[in-house]
Amino acid sequence: MRYVILGARVIEGLIFLVFGLNGLLHFYNPPLPTGDALTWFGIMAAHHWINFVAVEQLVGGLLLLVGRFVPLGLLLLAPVIVNILLYHALLYPHGYQLAILVLVLEVFLLGVYWRSFAPLLHPNPEMETPKL
Amino acid sequence: MEDSLGMKVVTLICRILLGLMFVVFGLNGFFNFIPMGPMPPADSAVGKWTSVMMETGWMHHVSFFQLVGGLLVLIGGTAPLGLVILGPILVNILTFHAVLMGGHGIGAGVFATILEIYLIWAYRANFAGILTMKAKPVN
């Protein structure tokens, strides 16, 4: 189990580190989408909105990869993944398989790091926060 | 941590303000009861972006999360989870106004962000688990 967790953390971390860096440095330019997706992506890129997303991906990925502040990294990546899924579901299904993979890894990691997230749901956290 | 009565009242007021704002905006995303003034020109970046977000139904998902986050913050016992949901929405509200609107209309977003940051601080005990450097997974 230890190695499964380590593997999931490293793969999820690497994927977002690479995508985050690529969003800023553009070392790989995937083929552009078409239709509404192209309109949407063109505006996000031209106005540098994508750069904010890339920085979040980069920071989240890096935290997972180095294994420090892993729960914070998962928290940063969760909304990014929600929006990646919405993009593929609503605008452009092409390439959705990678989105499913990062979702599965994220949910698995949220599960195994659940102790860190449990106090969020607790009305009286000081009583219950475990010593981590 | 024993908060004084004054702090508890401040926290309660911030929770109600932030929660209500997002419940109202979330509901408005479905029922459009707030008069919004003229739409941005259809050929502008904002106009094109907004129409894609509307026509694909993406905006309805955002509204749904605003509504749920706002309700959780209002309910109180679930406020920290609500704050976690509203956080990334606020990041995108601020980014939208900064990059697409040139800062126009960013006031409400900045106000809500101040409430959000104060509330995260007020509920910091709930966030302690997430902000731990060497968190260990269960084995």
What does this structure look like?
Chain A has helices at about 1-25, 35-45, 50-65, 70-90, 95-110, 115, 125-130. By secondary structure, chain A is an all-alpha fold. Chain A has one domain (about 1-130). With about 140 residues, chain B is an all-alpha fold. In chain B, about 70% of the residues lie in helices and about 0% in strands. Chain B contains six helices and no strands. The chains are: A mainly alpha (about 130), B mainly alpha (about 140). At the A-B interface, helix 2, helix 4 and helix 6 of A face helix 2, helix 4 and helix 6 of B.
What features would you highlight for this structure?
heterodimer, A: 132 residues, mainly alpha, 7 helices, B: 139 residues, 6 helices, globular
Strand content of chain A: under 5%
Shape label of chain A: globular
What is the number of independent domains of chain B?
A: 1
| Total beta strands of chain B | 0
The biggest beta sheet of chain B is recorded as: none
Helix content of chain A: over 70%
The average pLDDT of chain A is 92
| Low-confidence blocks of residues of chain A | none
Question: What is the ordering of alpha helices and beta strands of chain B?
Answer: HHHHHH
Chain pair with largest interface: A-B, 43 and 38 residues
Instruction: Decide which structural class fits the backbone of chain B.
Output: mainly alpha
Count of individual helical segments of chain A: 7
Strand content of the residues of chain B, in percent?
A: under 5%
Give the overall shape of chain B.
globular
Low-confidence stretches of chain B: none
β-strand number of chain A: 0
Helix content of chain B: over 70%
- Give the rounded overall mean pLDDT of chain B: 92
Topology:
The complex is a heterodimer of chains A (132) and B (139).
Chain A: H1 2-25, H2 35-46, H3 49-66, H4 70-91, H5 96-112, H6 114-117, H7 125-128
Chain B: H1 5-31, H2 45-55, H3 58-75, H4 79-100, H5 107-122, H6 124-127
Helix pairs in contact in B: 1-3, 1-5, 3-4, 4-5
